[in-house]
Each structure stands twice: as structure tokens, then as C-alpha cells.
Specification:
Elements: H1 6-18, H2 25-31, E1 36-45, E2 51-62, E3 68-74, H3 80-97, E4 103-108, H4 117-131, E5 140-144, H5 150-164, H6 196-211, E6 220-224, H7 228-239, E7 243-249, E8 252-255, H8 263-273, E9 281-282, E10 285-286, E11 297-299, E12 311-314, E13 333-335, H9 344-353, E14 356-358, H10 360-363, H11 366-379, H12 386-411, H13 415-431
Parallel strand pairs: 3-4, 3-5, 6-7, 6-12, 12-13, 13-14
Antiparallel strand pairs: 1-2, 2-4, 7-8, 8-11, 9-10
Helix pairs in contact: 1-3, 1-13, 3-13, 4-5, 6-7, 6-11, 6-12, 11-12, 12-13
């Protein structure tokens, strides 16, 4: 179905925004087509002596604002339309949040769970060698994504450094560690990176609620997706006085209408058991037997979307909210922390119902903001405290949210369209060689 094709949907979002902003047709054409798609072969000698050739790729969408930026994923089923959409959304996110990066995405068509550690390292190092000509601190800056992590980024970094040592004349005055973000701290990573997307989502939600003159205290929240992003978000919303009543992961969920007593204890329970279901915690004792005492109920990831809450957070799957279930959503605010969780038809249903959707390109941009901070620290050989990282993240998220909210009010358009208009203003300004700046005086 065309509506659920992410690249088709991304281009439609762009065209809708372009109808609200006078964009140069040539710039629009550039944004509708990736600058470059790089495909490489990745031959690997397996532990049994056999040879397997994997396919690697990198989509470099647009670099008007700066180096291409985006994750590398390891997944056996790579959908190029999905990857092009994700690279496009990275271009938009960076323009919205105000960091000097373009958009990119890439990876290898492999299931890393089927490889030994040595096979995974050999594959990654070969992929890194093949990527080296098309990446660099001022060219393209990859990061972790699905099934990749700091260790995998370190292997790619090491191959990049090894390669450029034989090309010294081409890399004068360059800090090679800035070629990758999401690195371990000891290899130049940034404090605050693990928390960044969840914390940024919290800042975005609190900013929009403030502009709607709604107090966060006591508002109920349901979160579909209790991974790294969802778990940090839940903790920060709890600290802000909101009541998280439901959480789910791929294996099930928990629902306590009166509120989950401690997100941190639930996290410890999930870490120990490997799943969220049954994590009903009274103090530090977590067990399914506590469910009745807490007035809890088991719930599926699908049903969590339909709960009677104030705020719904899809933080797991693309296309989670569709025309089939959007009418059953009771929340007045949807905070998109997953990429592309709402189909175009669901978006229209929410618009008609007056539901505020804080779009993914705004809500989950905290991750790339802190990736930029990491890159900046590497380039300037600095090391920031976590407090400094969080303070700068808060400033960026609040500034972007205020601009998007103002554009939404001025043009009478939803926040998603307003976010894209903000992005187009940024891209158009840079494309025309004009200095970027805010059009409105700060309130």
C-alpha cells in the first residue's frame, strides 16, 4: 500500500510542506532525490573457512547544511525505500534542530546474531575499509543504528584511521575520531549520548505542553517500546511529575491505571528477566504475583495504543498508528519517538480529531543533537560534562519546539507540516547563501 511506503510518505510530507513555503523548485528536486547511493561488496571469511559476500550500502541524501549524518544498521532485510526515507528524515531533523549536518543512512544486509564475534569483526572491518573513501569528519559521519553499537563503530573508526595514515597529505588538521559518533567514551564518545533521544523527547513534550498552557503534573502516559529510548523517556517523565501507566516491549506489556510506582525498578526487572511482562514491582520485589495488589493488567503492544491516557508515545515500530487503529486512540497528545510511526491516513484522522502529534523529526531529534555535540567535541578536542550536554540539548529542543509551534499557529497547520516548513526555511537560507536566523523575536 503506497501510504505505508516510507519513501512515498516522506516525499508527500515534503510536498505538503512545500505548499506552505515558497521553495526553489531546484532545491525541492534535490530533496526529492538522494545525492548519492553507494553500494559495496563485503566478502567475509567465515570461521569454518567458507566465504560469504554481503552487500553494504550508504544513502547520502543531502549535504546543504553540512556533512551527511545518520546511522549504520545491520539487518538481513534491507528495504531501500525505507533507508532513503530515513536518510531524508535525517536531513529534515538536522535542519529542524539546528545542527550543521545533512542526512544519511546505511548498513549491511546481515543478521549479526547469526555471526560469531570474530566474524562480526571481520565483516565490520571490511565494511569500514570500503566506506573509508566516502566518509570523513567533513564529508559523512555515520553512527550506530539497528543492531549496531559503540564496539562496531570503534572497528570502523580503526579501519578509517588505518586507511588515512597512508594518505596524510589529504587529512591535514583533521581529527579522525570525529568521523563516527556513538563511540565509547574512551574513544571520544560524549557523555549523555545514551539518554539523548529519550531526554530530548521529554524536553519536546514539556515544551509543547507549556505552549498549550497545560501542566505536566498528573498527566497520564502510555509508552509502546521500552527499549533504550522509551526507558529513559519514562524515567524523565516520571521526574517531571507525569504518571506513566503503561509500558510495552515486543513480548508484552504492563498496565497500571493508578500509575507504575517506579520506572527504575521495572527497568531492573526487565534487565534481569529479559522481558517487561510480569514486572509488577512493590519496592524492589518484582513479580507477576504483585499484579493484583497494584491493580495491574497484562496488555499487548497493540492495545497499549488504545488506552485512556493523556499522552501516547509510539517508541517502537514504524506504521504503528494506522487508519485501522487511529480512531481508537484516546490520547490528546501523540509523541512520536519511533521513526515514521504514523501513516498519512492516521495523521489525517488525528488532525480531524484535534489530537496534537509531536512529529518524529522534532520529537526524536535529541539523539542527533548530541551526536553533533560529540562531533564538535572531537573536532575541537574538548570534553564536556553531562550537565553541559543536557543544558545545550534542552536549549536546542526548546528553541526548535517554539519555532515549530509558532509556524503551526501562524499558518494554521499541524506540527508535522510546521516542522517541515522550519526545515525548508533553514535549507533554503543556506542554499541561497544567506545567513541563517530566526524570523521572529523570542517571546
Amino acid at each position: 500500500m503506497a501510504d505505508n511506503n516510507p519513501w512515498t510518505r516522506a516525499k508527500k510530507q515534503l510536498q505538503t510542506a512545500a505548499s506552505n513555503f515558497p521553495i526553489d523548485p531546484l532545491l525541492l528536486a534535490r530533496l526529492e532525490h538522494p545525492d548519492r547511493i553507494v553500494e559495496v561488496s563485503v566478502p567475509v571469511k567465515m570461521d569454518d573457512g567458507s566465504i560469504h559476500v554481503y552487500q553494504g550500502f550508504r544513502v547520502q541524501h543531502n549535504n546543504i547544511l553540512g556533512p551527511y549524518k545518520g546511522g549504520l544498521r545491520y539487518h538481513p532485510r534491507v528495504d531501500m525505500d525505507e533507508v532513503k526515507a530515513l536518510a531524508f528524515w535525517m536531513t529534515m531533523k538536522n535542519a529542524i534542530i539546528g545542527v550543521p549536518f545533512g542526512g544519511g543512512k546505511g548498513g549491511v544486509n546481515v543478521d549479526p546474531k547469526e555471526l560469531s564475534e570474530r566474524e562480526l569483526e571481520r565483516l565490520t572491518r571490511e565494511f569500514g575499509r570500503k566506506l573509508t573513501p566516502v566518509i570523513g569528519p567533513n564529508l559523512d559521519v555515520p553512527a550506530p543504528d539497528v543492531n549496531t553499537n559503540g564496539k562496531i563503530m570503534t572497528w570502523i573508526l580503526e579501519e578509517y584511521i588505518q586507511k588515512i595514515k597512508s594518505q596524510k597529505s589529504k587529512v591535514k588538521n583533521e581529527n579522525p575520531e570525529a568521523v563516527i559518533t556513538g563511540k565509547p567514551l574512551e574513544r571520544g564518545g560524549s557523555l549523555g549520548r545514551p539518554e539523548a533521544t529519550g531526554l530530548g523527547g521529554c524536553y519536546a513534550l514539556l515544551s509543547i505542553l507549556k505552549m498549550q498552557k497545560r501542566k505536566p503534573e498528573g498527566l497520564t502516559v502510555a509508552i509502546q517500546g521500552f527499549g533504550n529510548v522509551g526507558s529513559f523517556l519514562a524515567q524523565y517523565l516520571e521526574e517531571a511529575g507525569m504518571k506513566v501507566v503503561a509500558l510495552s516491549d515486543s513480548k508484552g506489556g504492563i498496565y497500571m491505571p493508578a500509575g507504575i510506582p517506579s520506572i527504575r525498578e521495572v527497568q531492573k526487572c526487565k534487565d534481569k528477566s529479559g522481558k517487561l511482562a510480569g514486572c509488577y514491582c512493590i519496592g524492589s520485589v518484582c513479580d507477576i504475583s504483585n499484579m493484583k495488589k497494584l491493580g495491574g493488567k497484562e496488555i499487548s503492544p497493540e492495545k497499549i495504543l488504545e488506552l485512556p491516557v493523556d499522552v501516547l508515545v509510539p517508541a517502537a515500530l514504524e506504521n504503528a498508528l494506522t487508519k485501522e487503529n487511529a480512531k481508537k486512540v484516546k490520547a490528546s497528545v501523540v509523541l512520536e519517538l519511533a521513526n515514521g510511526p504514523t501513516t498519512a491516513e492516521a495523521d489525517e484522522i488525528f488532525r480531524s480529531a484535534g489530537v496534537t502529534v509531536i512529529p518524529d523529526v522534532l520529537a526524536n531529534s535529541g539523539g542527533v543533537a548530541v551526536s553533533y555535540f560529540e562531533w564538535y567535541q572531537n573536532m575541537h578536542r574538548e570534553r564536556w560534562s553531562q550537565d553541559k550536554v543536557f543544558k545545550k540539548l534542552k536549549e536546542k529542543m526548546e528553541s526548535a519546539c517554539e519555532d515549530v509551534h509558532d509556524i503551526s499557529a501562524e499558518h494554521k497547520i499541524p506540527l508535522r507540516e510546521a516542522a517541515y516548513v522550519r526545515a525548508l526555511k533553514s535549507l533554503s537560507s543556506k542554499n541561497n547563501g544567506k545567513p541563517k536566523g530566526r524570523n521572529k523575536k523570542r517571546r
